[in-house]
From TrEMBL:
Chemical reaction(s) catalysed: ATP + protein L-histidine = ADP + protein N-phospho-L-histidine
Pfam families: CHASE8, HAMP, HATPase_c
Keyword Chloroplast: no
Localization terms from the record: Membrane
UniProt source species: Idiomarina abyssalis
Coiled-coil stretches: 234-272
Entry annotated with the keyword Transmembrane helix: yes
Protein name as annotated: histidine kinase
Domain Histidine kinase: 302-535
One GO location term (cellular component): membrane
Superkingdom per UniProt: Bacteria
Length: 539
């Protein structure tokens, strides 16, 4: 860190403050004097113009140009006046004509100033001169005008002379301030040097018995008193510390003895704690296994519940059919079958076979769903997918499961030429499951609804699909575990709870992406799916 001497700071501050005060004072004084001088020039020019106008009245009346010329030449002794014009007002045409003029020796004549006479009734400063005009009046009637131009050279010389005097005074004042500051610096710095010496000795030798001497300056005397008080307290603290060290030395001996005793006790306690920790690990393992078994039990219970119902109905229907077949066989053997009985038997057989067929089909669908949960990742290869055409195929494939397309439209949003290379089968299964899930769950009890599906590329290497419906949404207790197996709001009504679990496995394991779910009850759902692809075309 850069340091600077207090002596130098003191000189800098005094000179800086003095310089600023002098500059402000001289500037205000010079500006005021110059303004006052210019004001006197205004009055002087106006006085000359009025005198010339008063003298020119008789010359204009008698048209005595020679007399007026001689009178104007008498202005040669006036350094201030540079040019004077006398204009005559023609009584017939009421126009001004040049009557007479005066030009200071060495200066070229200037053009007439007819157009400026009205604006110069009060003196005006222009560049290096001042100009003014006055009417020539006779018996309250204007018979001509006088134009006068004066030099500002005297004003500028006055200003520079004032600046020169101010500069000399400024330098002399700064020199005097510097000498006074040197004297003042000794008064302040001398006691400060003694303070620094004492503090350095205390820091170097740790001799806290040293004290600062009183000073004639109040501030330094107060600092010396405070510093001496601090040294007294430091000495007292050191004395207390030494006594405390002696007491601590005695306590250390006692503590070593106690530590030896307690170390043995700690060893015994550690041994017991290790045994307890080992038992806790065993209990923890048992708890983990219990949780696994509980999860497995839930899964088995879900599978058993879902598969047991259609198979049980099939068994019941087949048993009933077997009973009817046995009765019919007995009647056939006894040759007492009537036509109506045979027709009723055929009808019952058809009804029972339909029941068996429907329920066995339901069981087969459930088994297929269970198999799809563990879909083989290597069974699908990448291919080029034109997203708009692909979505048309998906909508055709779900047409039998869709509700009324006019009341429940599906809107697709994606670039017309969006083509990517990815696994088409898993993506097809994801979309079908999401659409069917909306038809079954989201719009249950609704007379209209809408599904929006949009596709967009992210960084040319990732496809983002946003799927949303405006259905009834998902309760908060279900949304937290929406992707878990056998989680459904249609338990006992045809829902297996495997659809979204299959979607999650397909997105994360087969497509290598991620899926996010957002929903509020009665506000629909939104799925955001992102997975890596190779962009083929995107116009």
């Amino acid at each position: 860190m850069h340091t600077i001497s207090l002596k130098r700071i003191l000189i800098y501050i005094v000179l800086l403050v003095t310089s600023f005060a002098l500059l402000v004072g001289f500037t205000v004084n010079i500006v005021s004097q110059v303004a006052q001088y210019e004001k006197s020039l205004h009055e002087q020019s106006l006085s000359y113009a009025r005198i010339v106008a008063g003298n020119a009245a008789s010359s204009l009346v008698f048209n005595d140009n020679a007399t007026e010329k001689q009178r104007l030449n008498s202005l040669q002794n006036t350094d201030f006046i540079q040019h004077v014009h006398v204009y005559k007002l023609d009584e017939t045409s009421n126009e001004l004509t040049f009557f007479s003029s005066y030009n200071k020796q060495g200066l070229a004549p200037i053009p007439a100033r007819f157009s400026k006479l009205d604006r110069l009734t009060s003196p005006q400063i222009q560049d290096n001169y001042i100009e003014v005009s006055q009417p020539v009046v006779l018996d309250s009637e204007v018979i001509g005008y006088v134009y006068l131009r004066g030099s500002l050279e005297q004003a500028r010389l006055f200003m520079w002379r004032s600046i020169g005097i101010a500069a000399v005074v400024f330098v002399l004042t700064l020199l005097l301030c510097w000498l006074v500051t040197l004297r003042l610096r000794k008064t302040i710095v001398t006691p400060l040097d003694s303070v620094v010496d004492v503090i350095s000795q205390v820091a170097r030798d740790k001799n806290y018995s040293l004290r600062l001497a009183p000073s004639q300056l109040v501030e330094f005397d107060m600092m010396a008193h405070a510093f001496n008080t601090m040294l007294d307290r430091v000495q007292q603290h050191i004395s207390r510390q030494r006594r405390a060290e002696e007491e601590a030395s005695q306590l250390n001996t006692e503590l070593e003895r106690q530590v030896t005793q307690r170390t043995q006790a700690l060893k015994e306690s550690n041994s017991e704690l290790l045994k307890t920790l080992e038992q806790l690990h065993q209990y923890q393992g048992q708890l983990v296994e219990s949780e696994k078994m509980a999860s497995l039990g839930d899964m088995v219970a879900g599978i058993a519940h879902e598969v047991n119902t259609p198979i049980g109905l099939s068994v019941t229907a087949s048993t009933l059919l077997q009973d009817k077949l046995t009765v019919m066989q007995e009647k056939f053997d006894e040759k007492r079958i009537s036509t109506s009985e045979f027709e009723r038997f055929l009808s019952d057989c058809d009804e029972n076979l339909q029941i068996i067929y429907r329920n066995l089909g339901r069981a087969a669908d459930l088994v297929t769903s269970f198999k799809q949960v563990a879909v083989d990742q290597s069974s699908e290869v990448d291919r080029d997918i034109h997203i708009p055409s692909f979505m048309n195929d998906v909508l055709i494939s779900v047409k039998p499961r869709r509700l009324d397309p006019e009341k429940f439209p599906i809107r697709i949003s994606c670039p017309d030429n969006l083509t990517v290379r990815a696994k088409a089968g898993p993506l097809n299964q994801v979309l079908i499951n999401l659409i069917v899930n909306s038809m079954i769950h989201a719009f249950d009890g609704y007379d209209h609804g809408q599904i929006d599906i949009s596709f967009s590329m992210q960084n040319d290497s990732e496809l983002e699909m946003v799927y949303a419906d405006n259905g009834k949404g998902v309760p908060s207790d279900i949304s937290r575990k929406i992707f878990d197996p056998f989680v459904t709001t249609k338990r006992g009504s045809g829902g297996s709870g495997l659809g979204l679990h299959l979607v999650y496995n397909l997105v994360t394991q087969v497509l290598g992406g991620n899926i996010h779910f957002f929903s509020e009850e009665k506000n629909g759902v939104e799925f955001i799916v992102r997975f890596p692809v190779t962009l083929v075309s995107n116009a």
